[in-house]
Amino acid sequence: MRVAACDTLACMADLPAVTLEALRVRIVEVFPAQVRAAIEKLTEEEMWWRPNEKTNSVANLVLHLSGSLNFYLNNNIGGIPYKRDRDGEFAARSSLSKREVMAVFDDMVAKAEQSFKKIKPEQLAGPSTEPDKFDALVQDLISIVTHVSAHTGQILWITKMLEEGALDEVWMRAHKRHGGWKAK
């Protein structure tokens, strides 16, 4: 669903729809495309590489994003039941193949798309699912998108470090191909 940008005060009523679509595109299309592009470039061993035990591997970051979004977006907002094991997301060590890690991630993204279909633009100003942290649902979604963005950046950086030149311009390509930027 593409929503035209507001260029007059008359279209300000569409601002919730524009906001919701911008968040959806980034959470279920742009950032997942970047994660997938990074994972494609890594070997099974590189997926679990870490410079020291106090850091996370790409696989741990993907599992963490999946757990976090399954809980905060899909469970809390979308109503899709999920029992989270946050400690397990970080504790895993080479126990899953690249294919298995990506199956967990892709399942989360598919559920995120379902969750977004349930959200109506007028709900953005409604109550947060995390009332101890936020007042409005839009704040929940902004927190989710910034969390995904931060970890996607880490995944891309690790991949670029391990595979020189592997992700040249992936940020721009993903935004252009997946609706993060206006089509020319």
Report a brief summary of the structure.
This protein is mostly helical and 184 residues long. It has a single domain (15-177), classed as Four Helix Bundle (Hemerythrin (Met), subunit A), CATH 1.20.120.
CATH class: Mainly Alpha
Shape, please?
Answer: globular
Low-confidence stretches: none
In DSSP terms, counting alpha (H) and pi (I) runs of 4 or more, how many helices? Answer: 7
Distance between the termini: 17 Å
Strand content: under 5%
Give the helices and strands as they follow along the chain: HHHHHHH
Report the radius of gyration as a whole number of Å: 17 Å
- What count of domains describes the coordinates? 1
The CATH architecture name reads: Up-down Bundle
